[in-house]
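Reply to dn_fold:

You asked what the input looked like. This is it:
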Amino acid sequence: MNRTLKNILAVLIGLVLGSIVNMGIIMISGSIIPPPEGADVTTMEGLKSSMHLFEPKHFIFPFLAHALGTLVGAVLAAIIAANHKMKFALAIGVFFLIGGIINIFLLPSPTWFAIIDVVGAYIPMAWIGGKLALRR
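and this is what came back:
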């Protein structure tokens, strides 16, 4: 397979499988840490209107979803990429970071969470993912 095609495939697979991990964690989060009483978490409007009810514990799984989704996507992209493996891992981190920043504007969350999420969940996890892949 030619290098360019392999690298494009690496990014696509990293993004798709990282997103699946992210959504899987979000889907199970409510069964592990139930949403606050009265919170409608089924729609974006419901989340926006009930965000004030959320406690710090309710942000654990969103952070894990963002961090682990990025990590898995970065590892896969780096493993599959034909060359520049760390760059492709970090590219996944940048894609997920952009998504995280967009999410902050679409679904306002507490400032402390937005900072922790943007600083800790994306680029650092992509870097760790790249390092893990390079150790193989």
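The mean pLDDT is 95.
Hope that clears it up.
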